[in-house]
Amino acid sequence: DQQVKQNSPSLSVQEGRISILNCDYTNSMFDYFLWYKKYPAEGPTFLISISSIKDKNEDGRFTVFLNKSAKHLSLHIVPSQPGDSAVYFCAASSYGGSQGNLIFGKGTKLSVKP
Amino acid sequence: EADIYQTPRYLVIGTGKKITLECSQTMGHDKMYWYQQDPGMELHLIHYSYGVNSTEKGDLSSESTVSRIRTEHFPLTLESARPSHTSQYLCASQSPIAGETDTQYFGPGTRLTVL
């Protein structure tokens, strides 16, 4: 049973517009969430994270929102650029519970069109 | 960001061969991980280590083995490769910096194809 779900396998956005990638989780013990970006034939690159004590974290064009009551988080990219085209993975962990091991979603492939 | 290296980047090999995938990091991180990922699927944890002489199996059963004799080195070995082992193998190490305790940094991966 998947504990971290990314229900949209793909998303297409026009350059300059906002990209919103969504992630849902089922384990209420998760207290740390991360987003990774992955290009084909490369390893995932860490983008941004958020602790469960916050509901928003911002880093440049990237903002992650956390809604604990809905067990939902989202990654906003504004403005989207063609170089943002990649697969985005959501990950979660329960520090002190599962020794910090990350549980990943299946990823969402983002395509940003010029 | 961690400097973490994997070799080879690509490997095509015949069934029955023994292979070792190399992973090394220069940041002195104690925690290291191996993941397996197929296209369109999530990353599955197959092995992890919390330090020298520590190795544990992950959530996904794997016929591979690992060793951790040195902090910086975490190789993965397949004694007899099979086509079902065809996948991308990703190595990661974890930052011990307070405030980002669970952030893992990944190497470039090894794309393994077993014929």
Task: Tell me what the structure shows.
The complex is a heterodimer of chains A (114) and B (115). In chain A, the strands form two sheets. In chain A, strands 2, 4, 5, 9, 10 and 11 form a six-stranded mixed beta sheet that branches. In chain A, strands 1-3-8-7-6 form a five-stranded antiparallel beta sheet, with no helix packed on it. In chain A, a hairpin with a 4-residue loop joins strand 7 (62-67) and strand 8. Chain A is globular, with a radius of gyration of 14 Å. Chain A has strands at 4-5, 10-14, 19-25, 32-38, 45-51, 56-59, 62-67, 72-77, 86-93, 103-104, 108-113. Chain A is mainly β and 114 residues long. Chain B is mainly beta and 115 residues long. The interface between A and B is medium-sized, with 24 and 31 residues.
Strand tally of chain B:
11
Structural class from helices and strands of chain B? mainly beta
Name the helix and strand elements of chain B from N-terminus to C-terminus, one letter apiece: EEEEEEEEEEE
Helix-residue proportion of chain A: under 10%
Q: How do the SSEs of chain A run, as a string of H and E?
A: EEEEEEEEEEE
Which of globular, elongated, flat, extended, rod-shaped describes the shape of chain A? globular
SSE diagram, text form:
The complex is a heterodimer of chains A (114) and B (115).
Chain A: E1 4-5, E2 10-14, E3 19-25, E4 32-38, E5 45-51, E6 56-59, E7 62-67, E8 72-77, E9 86-93, E10 103-104, E11 108-113
Chain B: E1 4-7, E2 10-13, E3 19-25, E4 32-37, E5 44-51, E6 54-57, E7 65-66, E8 76-78, E9 87-94, E10 104-106, E11 110-114
Parallel strand pairs in B: 2-11
Antiparallel strand pairs in B: 1-3, 3-8, 4-5, 4-9, 5-6, 7-8, 9-10, 9-11
